[in-house]
Amino acid sequence: MKPENVLILPGWQNSGPEHWQSRWEALHGFRRVDQHDWMKPRRGDWIARLEDVILGIDGPVVLVAHSLGCILTAAWAEVSRSTGRVQGALLVAPGDPERDELRGLLPSWAPIVRQRLPFPGTLVGSRNDPYCSFDKAQSLAASWGARFVDYGERGHINAESGLGDWPEGVAMLRALAPLQGPQ
């Protein structure tokens, strides 16, 4: 897999410079799917943007999603005709837009699509994620047909979790798709 075919899908409000997604983009040459509005995300807009990016890439892709990016992956897979291009998805710390405190902030994202993904996936969940309960993360993995990884108590598995370059995550990604070039 060419590094530029690994697509970074940040969640709501994007991933800052110390987030493992941003570090992977800088270190490995992965490509971030930039959204038009990170602060007021609309599901349809985000799905259309992901589709446009995938259609512009030559060859297969791998998705690396965090938080709302995980929910995007499932929503996109439900409606896209390009799912055969995806070799696999690493889904990390899904957000839960069905939670009462998030429904008003992310109105177009509930209900969460719970259809089996048409490509292999690994979902990494944390036991103390403030944005998605551990049980909900396990339930989403089961609905999506993804392998579930219990990552212990690591919060939202973001910059505040102190993961740095997160080599364990890179190993999980490599299990989904062999990567080309220096890693």
Would you mind describing this structure in some detail?
With 183 residues, this protein is α/β, with parallel strands linked by helices. The protein has a single domain, classed as 3-Layer(aba) Sandwich (Rossmann fold). The protein has 6 helices and 6 strands, in the order βαβαβαβαβαβα. Strands 2-1-3-4-5-6 form a 6-stranded parallel β-sheet, sandwiched between helices. Helix 2 packs across helix 3. The chain is globular, with a radius of gyration of 15 Å. The N and C termini lie close together (12 Å).
Core attributes:
183 residues; alpha/beta; Rossmann fold; 6 strands; globular
Write the layout of secondary structure elements.
Layout: E1 6-9, H1 20-28, E2 31-32, H2 43-55, E3 61-67, H3 68-79, E4 86-94, H4 100-103, E5 121-125, H5 134-144, E6 147-150, H6 167-176
Parallel strand pairs: 1-2, 1-3, 3-4, 4-5, 5-6
Number of strands: 6
Mean pLDDT score, rounded? 96
CATH homology group: Alpha/Beta hydrolase fold, catalytic domain
CATH architecture: 3-Layer(aba) Sandwich
Cross-sheet strand order for the largest sheet:
2-1-3-4-5-6
Give the CA-based shape: globular
Note the gap between the termini: 12 Å
Strand content: 15-25%
Name the helix and strand elements from N-terminus to C-terminus, one letter apiece.
EHEHEHEHEHEH
- Structural class category: alpha/beta
CATH class: Alpha Beta
Main sheet attributes: strand count, strand direction, barrel closure: 6 strands, parallel
Query: Could you say how many structural domains there are in total?
Result: 1
What's the tally of helices? Answer: 6
Q: Unreliable segments (pLDDT under 50, ≥5 consecutive)?
A: none
Output the radius of gyration. Answer: 15 Å
Approximate helicity band = 25-40%
